[in-house]
């Protein structure tokens, strides 16, 4: 598949590709970099980036899709809530078709459940305020990018004194996942293409411990093809130089300290907790739970749901795909039983999922340079 390059970026892209090619020739071994952002995953496939890369430089897809990393237990709890006829469940659209142990939210809605797609967490708060005699639950899913919105919803519900609003929090923190990948024995990652959206919130400096402890270069980048190519060129150059550096190539949006106001609202409402991830298992302090001051808005407590438990579909390899252990075509379900029309795994459901990206852009053949594992 050929790359799609806009005219005004063609010169910049060509320069970055030359840098990448020159650096790749100086490598003493093949290297594998990983993007941990679903938008990077989709952008790289959409612009045909993999077909342009040197054979000894591979870009792996990581756990950057918030829908994909949500555990089966969390999904099953959402479905359990949706089946409660006294509950209105509000969710972002990507969660609607994710399959749990007993169907999906979409199927629940078809069977009469009150499941509503919202575009803002505050839409759920408004719905609760307008329907005081009905329980409204917001599915709070995502990384640090969407967490401030969930925190704002809780604060607003508290300000309004709502007694019928709660959230089912499944928010994740990106740094613990990156640590887990680097400590894994079955996947080698030589550097990270760091997520631009998350970095806007948490700041560039947060990635420094990854660089220092694991000697792993990290480059923060935007989401256009030329920006991604520039980041991969710089990552390759850092490996050639034998230097684990942290570089911010998205300075127009990302600062060293990040969005302090967003960080403050997250800290006010949430506190870190051990959390279950698809493909990574339970990671220490990798999720967020409500602080005691806002505990009454915790749907798990309100509806006596307990800790999330659930078993993933044994035939689905989403967990392996989002950790670089496999590519979508390694899954027997890919493009046969599992397609975007009838998705069996979250990686095919989500608009940022790796399986959907492969299916859309080149599932007919195997990209020669996209490899997984160690």
State the CATH topology of the largest domain: Rossmann fold
Instruction: Report the top-level CATH class of the largest domain.
Output: Alpha Beta
- Distance between the ends: 25 Å
CATH architecture label of the largest domain: 3-Layer(aba) Sandwich
Q: Provide the domain count.
A: 2
> In DSSP terms, counting alpha (H) and pi (I) runs of 4 or more, how many helices?
16
Q: Helical amount among residues, as a percent range? A: 25-40%
Q: Tell how many strands the DSSP assignment holds.
A: 13
Overall shape: it is globular
Order of helices and strands: HEHEHHEEEHEHEHEHEHHEHEHEEHHHH
Please identify the structural class as seen in this structure. alpha/beta
- The low-confidence parts are 1-8, 364-372
Could you give the topology of this structure?
Blueprint: H1 10-25, E1 31-35, H2 38-46, E2 57-61, H3 66-69, H4 72-82, E3 87-91, E4 99-100, E5 103-104, H5 105-110, E6 114-117, H6 121-130, E7 135-142, H7 147-160, E8 165-171, H8 174-183, E9 191-194, H9 196-202, H10 208-214, E10 218-220, H11 225-241, E11 246-248, H12 260-269, E12 270-277, E13 281-290, H13 299-302, H14 318-321, H15 346-349, H16 354-362
Helix pairs in contact: 1-11, 2-16, 6-7, 7-12
């Amino acid at each position: 598949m050929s790359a799609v390059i806009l005219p005004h970026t063609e010169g910049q892209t060509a320069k970055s590709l030359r840098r990448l090619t020159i650096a790749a020739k100086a490598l003493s071994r093949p290297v594998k970099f990983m993007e941990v952002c679903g938008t990077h995953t989709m952008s790289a496939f959409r612009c045909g980036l993999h077909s342009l890369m040197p054979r000894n430089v591979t870009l792996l897809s990581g756990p950057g899709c918030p829908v994909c990393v949500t555990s089966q237990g969390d999904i099953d709890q959402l479905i359990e809530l949706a089946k409660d006829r006294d509950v209105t469940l509000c969710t972002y659209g990507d969660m609607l078709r994710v399959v749990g142990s007993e169907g999906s939210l979409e199927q629940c809605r078809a069977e009469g459940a009150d499941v509503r797609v919202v575009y803002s967490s505050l839409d759920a708060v408004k719905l609760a305020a307008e329907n005081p005699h009905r329980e409204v639950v917001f599915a709070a899913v995502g990384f640090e990018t969407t967490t401030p919105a969930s925190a704002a919803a809780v604060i607003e519900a508290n300000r309004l004194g709502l007694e019928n609003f709660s959230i089912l929090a499944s928010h994740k923190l990106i740094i613990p996942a990156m640590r887990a990948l680097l400590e894994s024995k079955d996947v080698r990652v030589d550097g990270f293409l760091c997520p631009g959206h998350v970095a806007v919130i948490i700041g560039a400096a947060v990635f420094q411990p990854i660089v220092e402890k694991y000697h792993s270069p990290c480059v923060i980048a935007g989401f256009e093809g030329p920006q991604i190519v520039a980041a991969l060129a710089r990552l390759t150059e850092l490996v050639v130089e034998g230097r684990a550096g942290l570089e911010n190539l998205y300075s127009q949006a990302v600062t060293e300290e990040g969005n302090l106001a967003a960080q403050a609202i997250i800290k006010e409402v949430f506190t870190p907790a051990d959390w279950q991830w698809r493909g990574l298992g339970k990671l220490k302090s990798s999720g967020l739970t409500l602080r005691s001051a806002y505990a009454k808005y915790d749907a798990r407590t309100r509806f006596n749901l307990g800790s999330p438990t659930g078993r993933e579909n044994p035939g689905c390899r989403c967990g392996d795909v989002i950790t670089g252990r496999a590519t979508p075509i390694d899954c027997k379900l890919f493009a046969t039983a599992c397609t975007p029309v009838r998705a069996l795994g979250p990686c095919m459901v989500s608009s940022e999922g790796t399986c959907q990206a492969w299916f859309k852009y080149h599932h007919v053949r195997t990209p020669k340079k996209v490899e997984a594992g160690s």
